[in-house]
Automatic annotation (TrEMBL):
This is SLC26A/SulP transporter domain-containing protein. The keyword Transmembrane applies. The lineage of its organism: Eukaryota, Metazoa, Chordata, Craniata, Vertebrata. Keywords: Membrane, Transmembrane, Transmembrane helix. InterPro entries: S04_transporter_CS, SLC26A/SulP_dom, SLC26A/SulP_fam. One of its GO terms (cellular component) is membrane. It is found in: Membrane. GO terms for molecular function: secondary active sulfate transmembrane transporter activity. It comes from Gulo gulo.
Length: 580
């Protein structure tokens, strides 16, 4: 019988086990440095560093110029015979989709539909010169457009534009001055765009593109899913054509939903049927495009097809007159002259502009990196800040709202063969044709169809919910961050929700440092294999003790380790295996 506390002898290894022997020379540190000729790093003085940094040569100047104007680097290398046809096909396809999405996302930004066309045109012109991604399609995006709309509605609600109107009786009624309201909202949106661009340009100039690292994937996933839910609710009332108050801030989405359901009896059937059919058809055809993308050379532009058919039906049946359907009505023809937005409004929108600037940048860089990795090139995070900053500053003078990139539109540009931003310029040309010549033809289009197009494009963001089980298996804290950010953004609103998600993410880092996980590792006799002493009974921990640390190792965590109660840790030398 074994004595209490004695260690069991390890069982003999099976006969079929293999073994290996590693043989290498033994070096001292000095001998290793001498044999392999260690390079000594010379420390430069501050004066020498400044002199080198301020030195100027033709080669250095050309390099700086190409960094600030990436078009000078890639355009001379453009392969006309190989790439031009693909870029033309891609540009036309992306331009058609961009035209429709620009109009649709203008509803989210709370500005007249026609201004979405400007927002789908002007940012492309400057990004072509300053951007480093070859594949992203620059323009409006639902999440950012909704954040812009939240600011616009809070600063220019309908209540500010009610005027008394005499109807020929003893009683006066109040009506909304839509012209004054829309003019004010366009000015607010363009001012916000200018301010966002200034912030992005400053961030790029200060070389703080690293800020996107703090927007971890779980946080961005939860935030964009919540934003998709907010977009869905905001477009639902347009599909039903029911009026609600403009709510902002905490629980605004709940109040909006309650009012929508209270007024659901006032639904306009013509708008509802048109919107529902558009959602079903668009989602079905998009599924076909995804499943058969290897067989279909160009994705079916279903949004464009549906829009053309819906416009023809609305015009032929005169849905506005006969069924009181909500239509686009007026789209400006041609371009508006540039104007300086009222910078006096900056103080009222400064806080929101910071979050919009960071979110817009994070979305663009995240999408850009996906295609940069796929096609083996790099994008410069700091230069992207500068590119979008200049694009938004430029666009702000032309009555646009904030630009970033749209996932679906970028996917179209890439899948149809787009090689460079030449495709982007061609897509801008298609949008320009719509602005100059086709705007009048789209005026009978129902707003519910545009809202339905927005909803149909939310599928990808809603599907991020499927990431939760995977995150839970990989890292439970990441899954909790995803869920917390999503719920906070729905309840508190996008601005406060993003801030709450960031704070919660930082809190989890502090908690992981204060309450770290560690595991003692013991060696398997006669091998260099180490396993957990908690999980395996016959591993030896007497030669040396290893700790498997599941956290960042620095001074604070070292203090935690000193408080670990284990007599072996006091007697044996420690080695650390750091993971995470």
């Amino acid at each position: 019988m074994e004595a209490p506390g004695s260690r069991l002898e390890p069982p003999p290894l099976p006969e079929y086990s293999c073994s290996y022997v590693v043989s290498r020379p033994v070096y001292s540190e000095l001998a290793f440095q001498q044999q392999y000729e260690r390079r000594l790093q010379e420390r430069k003085t501050l004066r020498e560093s400044l002199a080198k940094g301020c030195s100027c040569s033709r080669k250095r100047g050309l390099g700086v110029l190409k960094t600030l104007l990436p078009v000078l680097d890639w355009l001379p290398k453009y392969r006309i015979k190989e790439w031009l046809l693909s870029d033309i096909i891609s540009g036309v396809s992306t331009g058609l989709v961009g035209t429709l999405q620009g109009m649709a996302y203008a509803l989210l930004a709370a500005v007249p539909v026609g201004y979405g066309l400007y927002s789908a045109f002007f940012p492309i012109l400057t990004y072509f010169i300053f951007g480093t991604s070859r594949h992203i399609s620059v323009g409006p995006f639902p999440v950012v457009s909704l954040m812009v709309g939240s600011v616009v509605l809070s600063m220019a609600p309908d209540e500010h534009f009610r005027i008394s109107s005499s109807n020929g009786t003893a009683f006066n009624t109040t009506v909304i001055d839509y012209v004054a309201r829309d003019t004010a909202r366009v000015l607010i949106a363009s001012t916000l765009t200018l301010l966002v661009g200034i912030i992005q340009l400053i961030f790029g100039g200060l070389q703080i593109g690293f800020i996107v690292r703090y927007l971890a994937d779980p946080l961005v996933g939860g935030f964009t899913t919540a934003a998709a839910f907010q977009v869905l609710v905001s477009q639902l009332k347009i599909v039903l054509n029911v009026s609600t108050k403009n709510y902002n801030g905490v629980l605004s989405i709940i109040y909006t939903l309650i009012e929508i359901f209270q007024n659901v009896g006032n639904t306009n059937l013509a708008d509802f049927i048109a919107g529902l059919l558009t959602i079903i058809i668009c989602m079905a055809v998009k599924e076909v495009n995804d499943r058969f993308k290897h067989k279909i050379p160009v994705p079916i532009p279903i949004e464009v097809i549906v829009t053309i058919i819906a416009t023809a039906i609305s015009y032929g049946a005169d849905l506005e007159k006969n069924y009181n359907a909500g239509i686009v009505k007026s789209i400006p023809r041609g371009f508006l002259p540039p104007i300086l937005p009222p910078v006096s409004l900056f103080s009222e929108m400064l806080a929101a502009s910071f979050s919009i600037a960071v979110v817009a940048y994070a979305i663009a860089v995240s999408v850009g990196k996906v295609y940069a990795i796929k096609y083996d090139y790099t994008i410069d995070g700091n230069q992207e800040f500068i590119a979008f900053g200049i694009s938004n500053i430029f666009s702000g003078f032309f009555s646009c709202f904030v630009a970033t990139t749209a996932l679906s539109r970028t996917a179209v540009q890439e899948s149809t063969g787009g090689k460079t931003q030449i495709a982007g310029i061609i897509s801008a040309g298609i949008v320009m044709i719509a602005i100059v010549a086709l705007g009048k033809l789209l005026e009978p289009l129902q707003k519910s169809v545009l809202a339905a197009v927005v909803i149909a494009n939310l599928k990808g963001m809603f599907m991020q919910v499927c990431d939760i089980p995977r995150l839970w298996r990989q890292n439970k804290i990441d899954a909790v961050i995803w869920v917390f950010t999503c719920i906070a953004s729905i309840i508190l609103g996008l601005d406060l929700g993003l801030l709450a998600g960031l704070m919660f993410g930082l809190l989890t880092v502090v908690l992981r440092v204060q309450f770290p996980s560690w595991n003692g590792l013991g060696s398997v006799p006669s091998t260099d294999i180490y396993k957990s002493t908690k999980s395996y009974k016959n591993v030896s921990a007497f030669v040396r003790h290893l700790l498997d640390l599941g956290f960042l190792f620095f001074m604070a965590t070292l203090m935690v380790l000193k408080n670990v109660s284990s007599p072996q840790l006091d007697l044996m030398p420690l080695e650390y295996i750091i993971r995470g």
